[in-house]
Amino acid sequence: MIIEAVTVTPMRVPLERAFRAATFTIDVRCTLVVRIETDAGAVGEVFIGDIRDHQGEVVKIIRDDIAPRLIGLDATRLGPCYAAMIGLSSGVHHRVRVMEAISAVDTALWDLFGKITGLPVHRLLGGAQDRVRAVVSCGYMGGADDTGALTEEAAERRDEGYGGVKIKVGFSEPHVDAARARAVRDAIGPDLVLICDANQGWDRYQASEFARSVAELNVDWIEEPTHWRDYAAGMAHVRQATGQQVGAGQNEMSSEGCRDLIAAGAVDVLNFDSSLGGGVSEWVRAATLAEAHEVRIAHHEEPLVSMHLLGAKARGLYAEYFSDARDPLTPRIAPEQPPVTDGHVTVPQSAGFGITLDRDYIARYAVD
């Protein structure tokens, strides 16, 4: 089963409005459609990643460097395929760009491997759960004056059947965001998951103040509460000072980075992102480290991929969705996907990731 072609199509979908978090603003949804073809006719194909500022660089790495290394290799031997790519991370390329490129291609390789074997990816990786809870990110407005809109949005997501919400915090003084979180808990009720994501918006003392202020709200975890310059140590401080659970990992680009977060006592939940940190192959290494240290396992974004990864692990947590306004691409590029019902999504049992792509939609928003 020899790899004959590796192709990538970049896409950019403008958003109707800008979405603001504590440390960034988003006005476009991007992705890469990666397709791998073999001499036997088997094809792996996924859409993956939300690379905006340097999308062209990542595409060039896939076309000029990764594809030539993979063509001619056996698609059923994922270890050598990954080894052929990961060597690029020590070369001339910016390490973030090359790891994002590897992520996209490795994910397509796993889709291909699933189709060759006739198994869904979550079963190839362990198959611990057939369904996972689905949560949705909301609250990109920020500030005390958005509380009414935020609670209305959270209630809408509850009524749509999601099992929880992740709200953006870190915009404001801790007591302001604590009041927003309190209003959301009242809106969604006591049983749904509530996560608060600060996107590295606070120093360790502000983050600790917020954590103490929401102690009675049953917040599942506070995500990336401290600034990048006090990342692991700051999060460890918040955990130790407040007893609140902390989640992080989406900004790591390797399992070794996740290892260091765990060793620093910085996380209760590891939300390593396979679309940024080396793909499924590297995510599995990070998840194994988390399991060995009794750290729970999440995933940042990409629900159609992450539901397989999280379903593979007994400690796998929640597939993370967005509203259609924040992510118009996912429901349209893959119109046939499992519904969210009673707070959960059932992982597809079809081969690979079970994703069927809309060619017309891809052609509409392709940028080269």
Judged by helices, strands and strand pairing, the structural class is alpha/beta
Strand content: 15-25%
Percent helix: 25-40%
Distance between the termini: 29 Å
**Average residue pLDDT:** 96
Quickly name the level 1 CATH class of the largest domain. Alpha Beta
- By CATH's scheme, which homologous superfamily of the largest domain applies? Enolase-like C-terminal domain
Low-confidence stretches: none
The total number of structural domains is 2
* CATH structural fold name of the largest domain: TIM Barrel
Could you describe the largest sheet, including whether it forms a barrel? 10 strands, mixed
State the order of secondary-structure elements, H for helix, E for strand: EEEHHHHEHEHEHEHEHEHEHEHEEH
Name given to the CATH architecture of the largest domain: Alpha-Beta Barrel
Tell me the radius of gyration: 20 Å
Report the principal-axis shape.
Answer: globular
- Tally the helices: 13
Number of strands: 13
